[in-house]
User: Fold these one by one.
Assistant:
Number 1:
Amino acid sequence: MKIDGKVVKTFDTGNVKAICDVTLDDAFAIHGVKLIKGQNGDFVSMPSDKWKNAQGDVKHSDIVHPLDTNTRAELFKAVSSAYASHMQSINNALPFGMN
């Protein structure tokens, strides 16, 4: 499966590093995938819905998600690579001495 990531927005503060769009085999798009800085390294968070259960507790449920560890790893690789490329292009665009 071909997985491509595209950075939509980056953040300078907080744990969310970027929000990305992902395409699968140039045929299926997933919007709102987050690259998050965690205590044990970066990870990908899938788009989710927020809802309340019968006890009134707020729960989050992924709208889409990989079904196996290999696909999750490939998704992470695509998103983190897109983020690295995006940040490199920003650094290259800064005036000399600013990066």
Note: The mean pLDDT is 92.
Number 2:
Amino acid sequence: MNLQAFVEHYGLAAIFVAAIFEGETIFLIGAFLARVGYLELPAVMAAAGVGAFVGDNFWFWVGRHHGPALLRRFPRVAQAVPRVNALIARWRFLAVVMLRFAVGLRTPGPAVIGMGPMPGWQFVLANALGAVLWALVIGGLGWTFGALAERWLGEARKVEEIALGLVALLLVAVPVARVILRRLHERATGTGGAA
């Protein structure tokens, strides 16, 4: 199976799974690929939005039912507690929406909120709004980047080849970079786990 067929066949599933975690990079690439014709933008946005919604609800309920164990196991979650609690104290419902756009807090944020007093139904509503807004904004950015790339590079086939090359590179580089950065951080701080 060539890369184009792989993207067309597994692209939406990859975007859904990536969005469960902090998957902006894969989502941006998916929107870019929609611009050059490999995927459909509404489907890309829907996959990302649903994945983000499911992932944050999962982490909220993990925090609600296993908060103390989560804090012991994952220092990154424990480190996020003061920042997330400050956002919740100030913005309440809107903090859930804002956390969707906060790099580094998107995964631990819902777990921390789950440990607090916010009712589950309120989190689910705010999370749904945040997931929709996030899907529209990030999807729009990826689409716009694709349009700019077409304008700058001209030839559509060249843009497609560059896009597929970027996908291949990022599918390898992003996970490797995250592992390396996490290990460097753990060495520097003396911590042993990450969320």
Note: The radius of gyration is 18 Å.
